[in-house]
Design goal:
single chain; mainly alpha; 2 domains
Length: 111
């Protein structure tokens, strides 16, 4: 299944996109505009932030995306609410970072 040709055959049979970049060079995918758009997005993927609060933030993103999709909030309202919630979630982290800098600064002055 790791061979690019096998992945293309699997794509033809199931529609599942291949995990190997070599398979993406096959004409079957290079002529599919939806697959090309996905490949373009895939080339810009970044890992999620390595912070303990990420799961809470991701949950809020889903919550507000759904509200915008269902039109219970406008996109601008959802983004503003998300911004406020994320700011609140990260408030403790900012406080802890500020406090650790102050402690380090005081320690270096005391030496």
């Amino acid at each position: 299944m790791s061979d690019p040709q096998q992945q293309i055959a699997f794509y033809r049979a199931s529609g599942d996109l291949p995990p190997r970049q070599a398979a993406w060079r096959d004409p079957v995918l290079t002529t599919d505009h939806r697959a090309l758009e996905f490949a373009r997005q895939l080339s810009r993927v970044q890992s999620t932030p390595k912070i303990p609060e990420w799961e809470r933030i991701a949950s809020k993103i889903s919550q507000y995306a759904e509200a915008a999709i269902r039109q219970t909030m406008t996109v601008d309202q959802a983004l503003a609410a998300l911004d406020g919630d994320v700011d609140q979630i990260l408030e403790k982290r900012r406080w802890m970072l500020h406090r650790s800098r102050e402690t380090a600064s005081h320690a270096s002055v005391a030496r």
